[in-house]
Design brief:
The structure is a homodimer. The first copy, chain A, has about 325 residues and is of the alpha/beta class. Helix content of chain A is about 35%, strand content about 25%.
Chain lengths: ~325, ~325
């Protein structure tokens, strides 16, 4: 079952039974707009603060995933959830009402990979018939958390990314569906010493490279074994660095690589600079765009690699670098 | 293997092979002082900032646990780690050099329970021969993160707790030792609507009550089946509330309950008000005080229940309540 240094190939692979995607107005206006389950026209989602709005999104996404599978919250054994905010308050406040035993996670924008890995590992081990994985991000709460309050109207460098307002939830379980999680590759922290928190693509690309190479090595695969290799939110800058790093290792993924942060917004017209980012970016793209294509069999096998930049305003102010981490999830049509 | 609503009884129970405890000066002067592996006289641990000091502690604690078991970092399959800081930077920066695939966690002061639960679940499922669990807290970084900079010298209400400067790491694995993790009870968020972040014991007591009751129910146990039931850091205020809540349910744990936050400091002389707290409190107490007693057989069976208060300065400023969460770990002599 253990593969190579960092991967697991499940003897009894769990399934992604259903998923839910909830996004804000701007995401709804983007190229994937027609695919999301719920687009809220008002980014406060009926709440008073950005943080409460993000909590509301997480709850909605979970209920959406559960509703599609006709599973009640009380039937869900465990929930793995996380967000970008300090002390994960979007998750704590949002999921309280579901009364599901909770594992709180933090992996920056890689958290959807971390949550899916742990949910899959739990189901494959027989620790629950149904397990939920959920992550979220919100442009308003993330700008406030990491950069400047929105009212300050700061200029955004071209390498900066636009935090996706969205939440994706995934019901993982033993019940057969058309998407199975056949394996996972758990990522290590990779730190090239970059310190520019407005260029997260560059900070995360080395971790994405490390995890993809490790995945190929652990499973004895080549890039073409995957119909697509999806990174979470490297964006335009990060993708080109990833290609350079992979080239140096003699591995070419240009033909089948896609990045959720690149496809979720229309760069020119939506003014999103280097692309989308945030815990929600990879999660809603997986739910709305990637999973349906695996379900239908258009793609037989996909490597999903959400990427995270590990930093806080404190580490940034103290002059620390921004290390990256990425987790790989192998999804197959069945 | 699944027990009741929230618990797992492992078919093939993993072992706590070794552990390491690293603490600051004040903890070293407390009642458990002689038991810790490493006491640093200088709370910066040779670093420039409190955050870097906390990172250093995590690394030291991990290396201590590994050293005792003569296991190299590269032999460790996965690492589950967390701390109290925003975006978990103590963990991200501290564990980078170990190059172990990482799952970042956030469960406030319950994180040592969360990490031990996931590490045990992973080993029991065959996902790794060796898995590490580590958590930390630091008085300086926590005061800065949640309350006031130390230089402000604010008055501390009597219900406030003193964040433990310390890190505890646990090597969980298949290799037989005298302590096995026979089961876990994963906690739900419990929110009584309390909003006083300077009275965390009161905020966490309902969650501790919920998890302990659920553990007893799921495993069909009574309190006396455990030699001790340890909560993480309810402190003096939280413990009395826990007793009241348990009384209402007709369950009396007074005879065998202990709280890590109560025993780590000498309340009167060390001026720690309601007791110790923080991710490190339960972790170093488990490592230095509880595990040796289970190893020796003085205690046959212990329920270890770290408790967390889920809040941030943002949620506090926005008037949100402080929900609690607690995870139960069943430790047995063997």
């Amino acid at each position: 079952m253990l593969k190579g240094k960092q991967s697991i190939l499940f003897d009894c692979a769990p399934y992604v039974i259903s998923s839910g995607s909830v996004v804000g107005k701007k995401e709804g206006e983007g190229p994937l707009g027609s695919l999301f389950d719920l687009i809220e026209e008002e980014n406060l989602f009926g709440q008073d603060t950005w943080e409460e709005a993000e909590s509301e999104m997480q709850k909605e996404a979970c209920l959406m995933a559960l509703g599609k599978a006709q599973v009640e919250p009380k039937e869900v054994r465990y929930l793995f959830g996380g967000d970008l905010l300090r002390q994960g308050i979007a998750t704590s406040m949002g999921l309280e009402e579901l009364h599901i035993p909770l594992f709180g996670l933090y992996g920056a924008c890689s958290t959807s990979g971390e949550a899916l890995a742990l949910a899959s590992m739990s189901v494959a081990a027989g620790y629950g018939e149904y397990v939920l994985a959920v992550t979220s991000s919100h442009f308003g709460s993330a700008e406030k958390e990491f950069r400047f309050p929105l009212a300050y109207a700061n200029q955004r460098p071209l390498s900066s990314q636009w935090t996706v307002t969205g939440s994706g939830a995934f019901l993982v379980g033993e019940e057969k569906s058309h998407v199975k999680v056949s394996g996972v590759t758990v990522g290590k922290i990779v730190d090239y010493g970059l310190k520019d928190s407005q260029n997260m693509g560059a900070c995360m690309a080395p971790a994405a490279c490390d995890t993809i190479l490790q995945n190929l090595k652990d499973f004895g695969s080549k890039p073409s074994d995957y119909d697509r290799i999806f990174t979470g939110d490297l964006g335009y800058v990060g993708q080109s660095i990833l290609f350079d790093l992979m080239d140096k290792e003699g591995v070419d993924i240009k033909d089948n690589h896609m990045d959720c942060g690149k496809i979720i917004f229309e760069q020119e017209t939506q003014h999103t600079n280097a692309g989308g980012s945030g815990c929600g970016c990879a999660a809603v793209t997986l739910s709305a765009y990637i999973l349906p294509k695996i379900q239908s069999g258009e793609w037989e096998k996909v490597l999903f690699v959400p990427t995270g930049a590990l930093m806080s305003t404190v580490s940034f102010n103290e002059g620390q670098s921004v290390p990256g981490i990425a987790h790989g999830i192998v999804l197959e049509h069945c």
